[in-house]
Specification:
Blueprint: H1 25-39, H2 46-52, H3 57-60, H4 67-82, H5 89-106, H6 122-135, H7 142-173, H8 177-193, H9 198-206, H10 212-231
Length: 232
């Protein structure tokens, strides 16, 4: 039940004070994003953000109540980078998906915040408003529009998490994808030689391992084609 308490976006910031390091929510969020870009979400805490700003963590509590609120603010800042989609529904959702992927590749930690309950900051609400403005004329039933947005979001979230996972694995192991495939090639060839996996054999023989951006775009196009067919 909503208790009516103001959210972090509605609470006023503390008044300016004379201090060696002036603080603001914007500065706190920027410092937290820099830490997360460098070391992931585990590198973010109010103590670490305060240290990065040469301020004690207790000063930060005047601006944010918890790490969860800080994560909300960080996620909403990235939503601001993604921008508000516009235009015909397919054009708008393609632009939204590509901008989301680009934002995740700049801020890999954002992929870890894409699931679960939505973080309803002002930038996220603006993105949702623009998405609905593009989708509702083509899918006027609200539940149909919700299905379209959820389907595209699910594809984008899954695709970018897979791409980020590969990047993280390469950094962690020092082995990139081509080297990993080469290391497992002999095992795979022996497995295929048994004749037990004819579909995988065809997949390996005929498939291509394309550029991640091209693979993402092709998968997105397939999802949008399916939604367009459902509309017809």
């Amino acid at each position: 039940m909503d208790d009516g308490s103001p959210t972090v976006w509605e609470r006023a910031e503390p008044p300016p004070r004379t201090a060696p390091t002036p603080l603001s929510r914007a500065a706190i969020v920027a410092a937290a994003i820099a830490l997360a870009d460098e070391g992931g979400l585990d590198a973010v805490s109010l103590r670490k953000v305060g240290a990065a700003l040469s301020a004690g963590p207790m000063r930060l509590y005047g601006f944010v109540d918890s790490k969860d609120e800080l994560l909300d603010l960080m996620a909403d800042a990235v939503q601001g980078e993604i921008g508000v989609p516009a235009g015909e529904w397919r054009v708008a959702l393609t632009a939204l998906a590509e901008a989301t992927r680009a934002a995740v590749l700049r801020h890999e930690w954002f992929a870890d915040l894409m699931g679960g309950r939505p973080r309803l900051g002002p930038n996220r609400l603006a993105v949702l408003e623009g998405s609905l403005a593009a989708v509702l004329p083509a899918f006027p039933a609200v539940d149909d529009a919700r299905h379209v947005l959820w389907t595209v979001h699910a594809y984008v979230a899954g695709a970018v998490r897979a791409e980020v996972g590969e990047r993280r694995a390469a950094r962690r192991t020092g082995v990139d994808k081509p080297a990993w495939q080469a290391a497992h090639g002999a095992y795979l060839r022996r497995s295929l030689a048994t004749g037990r996996f004819p579909m995988i054999e065809r997949f390996v023989a005929e498939g291509t391992d394309g550029d991640p951006a091209a693979v993402f775009a092709a998968g997105l196009a397939a999802v949008l084609d399916g939604l367009a067919a459902q509309r017809r």
